[in-house]
Amino acid sequence: MKVHQIAAVLGAAALAATAPAQADDTDKAKAEVKEQRQELKEQRQETKEKLKENRQELQNERKEAKQELRAKEQELNKEAKEARKELNEEAKEERKELSVALAKLRETRTERRRELRAELRQKLGANLQNTAIREELRTHASRIARLNQIKRIADAEEKDKIEDRAEKLIERENKRHDKQLAKLRTQADQANTQAAVRNNTLTPPDKAGVDKGNTKTGNTPAPNTPSAANPGSPDKAGTPAGETR
């Protein structure tokens, strides 16, 4: 037998001897792979179950939260309804009080007008008939009445900012009215004086003294001419009444 033949026989024998060992290794690898797949499958199943449990817990929590929110919303709506009811009752009482106050003001309106007219007559005198002054009085009375009404309503509804604003506007309007009324009174007095001068109802001061003296004595002033007894000197008859020599 030749050498190469012997080597071939030996190689074949070696392969035949190692074949069972390789088969065993393959079976072990397959078994390990199978076990790993089973473990992965079990882990996947556990993960699915946990996710399912978590979803269920989340759904339950969401459901409970919705119920709590619904209960709180109902409670808040109930409280808001009660609060609105109380506010409506308070508003009714305030409107009633305001109506009573306005009724009292209406009852005393005539008396207050009478007192105001008397005060204006005493303050303005003849100037009360002046057209510009009367128009200013109407404007001022209308503005003050409107601002007082706003102030009363703001006070009844407890709106402090509006009430403070109304008070400031009333103060400003009073200052404006006093300034404008003083200006109109001055203009009216000047117009009355000029009219009196034009109609000769106002006599100059020096002429008034002469007329006053003559009225007392009942004499008519005579020319300042010399008398016959004392030529060159004024006679008593020529001296105006009310003057001394």
Uncertain segments: 206-245
Amino-to-carboxy terminus distance = 200 Å
Rg from Cα: 60 Å
**Percent of residues in β-strands:** under 5%
Largest sheet: none
Would you tell me the structural class of the helices and strands?
mainly alpha
Could you state the oligomeric state of the chains shown?
Answer: single chain
Say how many strands there are: 0
Write the H/E string, N to C: HHHHH
What portion of residues is helical?
Answer: over 70%
The overall pLDDT average reads: 76
Total helices: the number is: 5
**What general form does the structure show?**
rod-shaped
Explain what you see.
There is one protein chain. The protein is an all-alpha fold and 245 residues long. Among the domains are: 48-107; 125-196. It is 81% helix and 0% strand. The protein has five helices and no strands. Helix 3 (131-156) packs antiparallel against helix 4. It is rod-shaped. Residues 206-245 have low confidence and may be disordered.
Task: Furnish the topology, listing elements before pairings.
Elements: H1 3-107, H2 109-124, H3 131-156, H4 160-198, H5 205-217
Helix pairs in contact: 3-4
Highlighted features:
about 0% strand, disordered C terminus, mainly alpha, about 240 residues, 5 helices
How would you summarize this macromolecular structure in one to three sentences?
The protein is mainly α and 245 residues long.
